[in-house]
Amino acid sequence: xxxxxxxPVYNENESLELLHQTLSEAMLEVTGxxxxxxxxxxxxxxxxxxxxxxxxxxPEHVVVVEFRRxxxxxxxxxxxxxxxxxxxxxxxxxxxxxxxxxxxxxxxxLDEGYDVVSGWRKNREDNAITRNFPSxxxxxxxxxxxxxxxxxxxxxLKAYRREVITGxxxxxxxxxxxxxxxNSVGARILxxxxxxxxxxxxASKYGLERTVxxxxxxxxxxxxxxxxxxxxxxxxxxxxxxxxxxxFGLLFLLVRxxxxxxxxxxxxxxxxxxxxxxxxxxxILMGLIAELLVRTYHExxxxxxxxxxxxxxxxxxx
Length: 318
Fold this sequence. Notes:
Layout: E1 3-9, H1 13-27, E2 34-40, H2 47-57, E3 62-67, H3 73-83, E4 88-91, H4 103-110, E5 116-120, H5 128-146, E6 158-161, H6 178-184, E7 189-193, H7 209-226, H8 231-260, H9 268-299, E8 308-312
Parallel strand pairs: 1-2, 1-4, 2-3, 5-7
Antiparallel strand pairs: 3-8, 4-6, 5-6
Helix pairs in contact: 1-2, 5-7, 8-9
């Protein structure tokens, strides 16, 4: 399989028929074989039935993965990756705000030697206050913390070579950080402007609370991409700094005692220095424990983060 298009679906019944029609028309410009994997994330509006109807009309290209309950967009994308067979994997939203007609252009840019082509909703058709402004802040923060500078981490429309996005698991809201993971394995990343449309059906599933989740996930991603293999460097380094500061404080108190006669124990700096030394020692111990956990993680059997009700595809696709 040359191309897999992964589309998470959550209560998008009204848009699915038009989405598949538009996608199929766009795929006429693509050479090679392709499939579209619809991952229903516990929809309650009839989306699973609509997806099976779409499969019945186009079994050559359609795969339907149905979750038992809602697990979230990140997990739906992970399931799509797990069941995709394409050499290139593209992600697309089901709400028709992303335009499938941009996919052929992105594949062309991949052929130029890039490993990741990331969509940039340059003219975004969303609410300026509740969607666009928080998104700008999040994109600026992620770019500066991770060093992978993109204008639009939140755009689902992205194309990846399979080899740069396999080998790691996704949790929380971490699907937006996939370019960071890809960068950590040396992927060449290109960002291109893509079309963006106002939502035609339903309502957005996300609010301002998502920004908080993104910040927390950013901390986790930064740790996983920079310190997960040697956590002792992070925890031990912090512990060493605290112990060094503690020793400096105690030395200052001792010198002051010898020069001015002020008692060491009478100063609040003594308590602060002692607490810093204890905290530093504990941090180093945490680093050692984290080292053991990292080794256990890499050597243990990987377990899935989702459960599937069923998979609908042709027998010849198994």
